[in-house]
Amino acid sequence: MKRLIIFIFVSLILFSFIMGRISQATDLILNNVPAQIYFGPRGGCVEAIINELGKAHTEILVQAYSFTSAPIAKALLAAKKRGVDVQVILDKSQRTQKYSSATFFKNVGIPVFIDSAHAIAHNKIIIIDKATVITGSFNFTKAAEEKNAENLLIISSKDMAILYLENWQKHKEHSKMY
């Protein structure tokens, strides 16, 4: 009985230690941070994204589960043509579609990486110039703009952008070039 109690006690300590390391949050206090919030369907999410992409000067990093929005893809291509470094990480489901956004991006010279290390790579983020983060439930798809109940946040915060950038880079490290 004493061994069982010791085993349970040690197990709880180890479990607490492991869970603490897995579920660590980064605290960030946002004071006077400009942000825009959009809701769909037909809430202007695509237009807002295209507007932000048009402001990019040096870098746009995308991480997306589903990507079928032609207007957003064209805005990324326009940014690339302006000399902006554009890179995209997509879920493995984009690899198996006949002509996917991954194929489009690859064909126009935008580096594409496939994240297959997870059941699904469900992130929906865009990091612009290490200063702006676009995130939310909004998939970069026509259905998200026209049919789905979605939300989109555009946050102008270098502190937040750095955190998202670090996470983006971790996913790029285990992703494969398309």
> Multimeric state of these chains?
single chain
Instruction: Classify the helix fraction into a percent range.
Output: 40-55%
State the CATH superfamily name: Endonuclease Chain A
Q: Low-confidence parts lasting 5 or more residues at pLDDT below 50?
A: none
In whole angstroms, the N-to-C terminal distance is: 56 Å
Radius of gyration: 19 Å
The chain-level mean pLDDT equals: 87
Shape: globular
Largest sheet: 8 strands, mixed
Our count of helices gives 7
By secondary-structure content and strand pairing, the structural class works out as alpha+beta
Identify the strand order in the major beta sheet: 1-7-6-5-2-3-4-8
CATH top level assignment: Alpha Beta
DSSP, total strands: 8
What is the CATH architecture descriptor?
2-Layer Sandwich
CATH-assigned fold name? Endonuclease, Chain A
Count of structural domains:
1
The fraction of residues assigned to DSSP E strands is 15-25%
SSE order, one letter for each helix or strand: HEHEHEHHEEEHEHE
Question: Which labels suit this protein?
Answer:
178 residues; 24% strand; eight-stranded mixed beta sheet; Endonuclease, Chain A; alpha+beta
